[in-house]
User: What shape does this take?
Amino acid sequence: MTESEKLRLGGMALRNGLLVHGPTHWAAAVRARDGGIRTASGPKPRVRGFDSVPGARGLARLAEALAVIPLVKRALPEARLPFQDARVIGVAAGAAAAGSALRRRSGGGLGSETAAGALSLAPALFALRGGELASYHGVEHKSIAAYEQDTPDAADAAKEHDRCGSNLVAPMLAANVAGSVLVRRLLGRPGPAANAAVALSSMAAAVEVFAWSERHADTRVAHALRRPGHELQRALGTREPDERQLEVGRAALAEILRVEGVEA
Assistant: This one.
């Protein structure tokens, strides 16, 4: 199979394994408590009708990715999700409360919106600090890169990847800050519907920036747009996995290739 014929794969690190998305199916592999590897797979849900609509098409793909999560848990109960931790949920609640209080005290200016946006990253960063999540994030990138680049051993691939969701963070925060400031100036005290609209619009804009960067991957602008995400991956988001973790990644990759009908 040539590089141009390679499947476009995505994924999500689990606390004890890896979930991989293919064009039409998903596959997951986890390390169970008894030390064995469990795998599961199935067809992906599709949200149709938005493929040619900028903004909406990105939200549709994100909705598909979210819809896979309960399917994974049903088929593979041993799978532990990234935020499946009471401490992470507590940090998320605290960050949300702190961001809300900051906005109320400062009137929702540029500085307070930027600080509140930075606080929103706290749960993800906290989740990556403990356990194996950051290592399995490295497994995700290495496994997919090894497949894309025909690298014999995933251990030799880079733990940072240009299509990582971390590349959404900077454009999404920038769009969210700008949108929140604008809405507050127009409405004074925006309600939940207005705030939700800003959040969705920011996510849609970030996905479009992400897609543009991939289509123009060799340009200086694309490199600059990917730089914050790459540094986030390098410094905080990923760790070099060990051989047992890479073994789980190989199982997930083999399963997605099997269900997508590709010879490994």
In short: The CA atoms of residues 237 and 259 lie 29 Å apart. The mean pLDDT is 86. The two ends are 10 Å apart (CA to CA). The chain has nine helices and four strands.
